[in-house]
What we know:
The protein has helices at residues 27-37, 41-45, 114-131; strands spanning 18-21, 47-59, 65-76, 81-88, 91-98, 101-106, 109-111, 143-151, 157-164, 173-179, 185-192, 195-207, 210-221, 227-243. It is mainly beta. The chain has a single domain (18-243), classed as outer membrane lipoprotein receptor (LolB), chain A. Strand 9 and strand 10 form a beta hairpin. The longest helix has 18 residues, at 114-131. The chain starts with 17 loop residues before the first strand and ends with a strand.
Amino acid sequence: MRQQTPFFIGILMSVVFTTVGCSSHPAKEIVLKSLEAHGGKKTWERTKKVSYTKATTLFTEQGAVEKEVYQNHEVYFQPFKAIMTWQEGATTNTAQLENDSLMLQRNSKSVTAPKVLQETKAVLEGAYYVFWQPYRLLEPEARLELLGTRTLFNGKKTIEVLVRYNDAPEADRWHYFFDENSYRLVATGIIHQGRRSLITNDAYQTRKGIVLNRLRTSYFTDANFQPKYKRASYVYMVTDVVLEK
């Protein structure tokens, strides 16, 4: 299964946690156990195509709805291709990522502005990176470090794995939290440009044996990962999964 290295991830999360001990399990072992809890590595690697819708609701600090976005996604494997369509007023947008190259159309007219293409590519890559977890943590670019066990702000007891993609001071730092009993991925924290966030995985859905997220909630947090306010909610609906026979 060919994967894409994350270009920029615009989805953030927050969490407050308390250290409750240290696990002796190596980080990759935790990820592999999580993958088994989400359907098994062999099943994920048999995936030829997955289609899903994503509804995003953004909130202001006061709790008012700021914006709603609805997207349709199709991801093909072997070889990789990702397609995202969404509506903005009377404009229908279609973005297609293939061979690390993005094509964008608005109302069937090609968009060539480099900045717009770059920003759209980042959104599409980020959407795929976040949705296709925990499998993508097995990519060689993902450097895993086991940090220990943590209790999240919502009381969930987890095993925390730090993921880095480079050592640049300004690079994003990802914190993945796995249920200490079931090993399911229950939350993801990120430090992005000095801002800390957390997305909790609140509900799941199973399609063709693969366990994927259905409901997620994103928070902005303080330096201790204590939520300041809810920033977004995400509703995913998987409409099709095609596996190799």
